[in-house]
Amino acid sequence: MICAAGLGLSSLFGSVIGLIVRRIPHRWNDVFLGFCAGMMLTAAVVCLILPAVGMCRPAAWWQVVAGVVAGVALIGMLDRFTPHLHHLSGIKEEERHVNNASLNRTLLFVMAIAIHKLPEGLATGISFNGEPGNAFAVALTIALQNIPEGMVVVTPLLMAGVRFLNTALIALTVALLEVAGVFAGYFIGDISSLLLPFMLSLAGGSMLYVISDEMIPETHSHGYQKPATYALVAGVICMLFIESAF
Predict the structure, then answer these.
(1) What distance in Å separates the CA atoms of residue 65 and residue 116, rounded to the nearest whole number?
(2) In terms of C-beta density within 10 A (0-12 exposed, 13-18 middle, 19 or more buried), how is residue 66 classed?
(3) 91 with 221: CB under 8 angstroms?
(4) Which of 102, 120, 128, 224 has the fewest other C-beta atoms within 10 Å?
């Protein structure tokens, strides 16, 4: 409960900053997201996938492979039928999502953000069925990256002309999506300990997809790929220190 509330509040805190600042320079946006991508990358591998491998005998490692593939496939399917965050924020996007052409722009934006938030919440909830130290490391990582991400997601709405109150309500909805993901992940992972390696790997695979398909391309699309890359490396190192501390 405390963990879910923490993730939701961190997302809201970032959104409040975004509502006040209104416009974030692309350079700092890319640096923030690069750092978050590095932390999430390390969390996905060190705190989710590797513990899943450790729970299995070599003959049962197929669960880990199947879980990662399932996580990638799940988020890839969602990604196919919802628009990318960069496209709806006014940044040129080569992929077209014609299936959603007739839907309301604001609804699409919320759906795009859900691609990020649901896997993060699921990963946190599922991780609490494994090692407590790894679970807290995952939760702390996602809470930290929620702050700059919360800043980023409200800015395009304000720039697109969405009213302040509506933008605030959307930010609240996004935070609640992640909270719901935490509870869903916890109860799914609690169904059977035999499925825990698969579920941890699924959460890790979903995070890897979001990092590679959404976060890293976003940080490399405005000409600031060098500082974003340095920030990603810093995020990896920071997450390793956090994980070792727990």
Answers:
(1) 22
(2) middle
(3) yes
(4) 102
CA 149, 197, 243, 69: dihedral to nearest 10 degrees? -40
CB 131 within 8 A of CB 51: yes
d(CA 10, CA 150): 8
Banded model confidence at residue 229, pLDDT cuts 50, 70, 90: very high
| Residue among 246, 245, 243 at smallest CA distance from 38 | 243
25 neighbors 227 (Cβ within 8 angstroms): no
pLDDT for res 68: 94
- Which residue in the block uniquely carries the two structure tokens 């399932």? 70
Look at residue 232 in the predicted model and tell me its pLDDT. 94
DSSP label at 115?
H
Cβ-based burial of 108 (10 A; exposed 0-12, middle 13-18, buried ≥19):
middle
Residue 94 identity:
E
Burial class (CB in 10 A: 0-12, 13-18, 19+), 95: exposed
| Type of residue at 126 | I
Q: How many Cα neighbours within 13 Å face the side chain of 223?
A: 2
